[in-house]
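In this section we walk through a basic example: taking a raw amino acid sequence and producing a predicted 3D structure, encoded as discrete structure tokens. The instruction is simple. Fold the sequence below.
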Amino acid sequence: MFKPLSIFIGLRYTRAKRRNHFISFISLTSMLGVALGVAALITVLSVMNGFEKELRERILGMTSHAFITDADGTLKDWQKLQGLIEDYPHVVDSAPFVEGQAMLSQGSRVRGTLIRGINPELEGRVSTIGDKIIQGQFDALQPGSFGVILGKDLAIAMRVSTGDKITLITPHVTPTPAGVMPRLKRLNVVGIFEIGMYEYDSALAIMNINDAAKLFRIPDKVTGLRLKLDDVYQARRISRDLLATLPASYRASDWTYQHANFFRALKTEKTVMFVILMLIVAVAAFNIVSTLIMMVTDKQADVAILRTLGMKPRDIMLIFMVQGTLIGIFGTLIGIVGGVALALNVETLIANLEQVLGYQFLPADVYYISSLPSDLQWNDVTTIGLIAFLLSLISTIYPSWRASQIRPAEALRYD
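The resulting token sequence is shown next.
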């Protein structure tokens, strides 16, 4: 089936100037359609990868890769646990924390919040919260000071700033002669942070770990031990393997479990976008069908002569499959080159376009990610290129088969 003569004739037909210029136009349109579809798909997936990477980095800047706690949700001797895991090969570092739900009150304004107690000296090992302070000082979280660092949106909602005082209401109560009273504590606002994730900026408050332990009535205890791992994408496996080496009373969780719905939604959106944009490539690829059918009609006499000279039907099929495949290959290659170039420079191009138009597509006061990030992944480029090529190849089968069924006597009857 794979004969040089068929390939030679197919290449000659591809290079030759056609009498029917409409066929040449359709061929060019098919090639450009495949190229535009491939380029658009590579660019869009790269931008979606960029957004996912940016969001993941912001989330991991506040949450731990994994954490370990005891069966009752507290750890009495976290130093002992730290000693057990410090030699584990995948654990880079660790830090204790205290966490609990509470309410913040300022005048008539009340907001629910998540209180996280940290050790300022150790927290930098597992998170980047120290780099996100926009007001105040991270080191101001000293034991016994009952200082608090609020998220930017939470501070705006409570209308407080650095130096103000705010009331913390814990879920624990104190019995008094007048009845059961909630525990209240006046806190000093010593700083404000901005992560760029509304989930944290609007509902998280940071305190010293000793102060938080007193407020939640777990003196000499912590909620758990936060871990920094050498590979965040293997957090689930690493935490599971690590847990197998520890006593049975310990429990472990990781960031993929804590934010499973969020990243599952991103993955679903990326898959749907891939399918939708691949349909554009499919439409362009199947335009090759129209091109080849018109080509077969135009070359009926040539095919009849070749059949008369002894060429087999499968050789005739190969002639036209070569033409369609070349259209698909060139379209795919042009699209890959254009898509990769656009994906690598999309941030610069969008910034220049915004400067020319005087309009910002992602305003910083509306969107936390005000630039258009891009993360080109070569696995995506390879997958897109292979699928585009296969679609182009499939689209050549039917027209080529039609060409192989031409009967020489009928084709040459009126020539």
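Looking at the output, two observations stand out. Residues 4-58+262-411 form one domain. The longest strand covers residues 91-106. In the next section we compare this with other chains.
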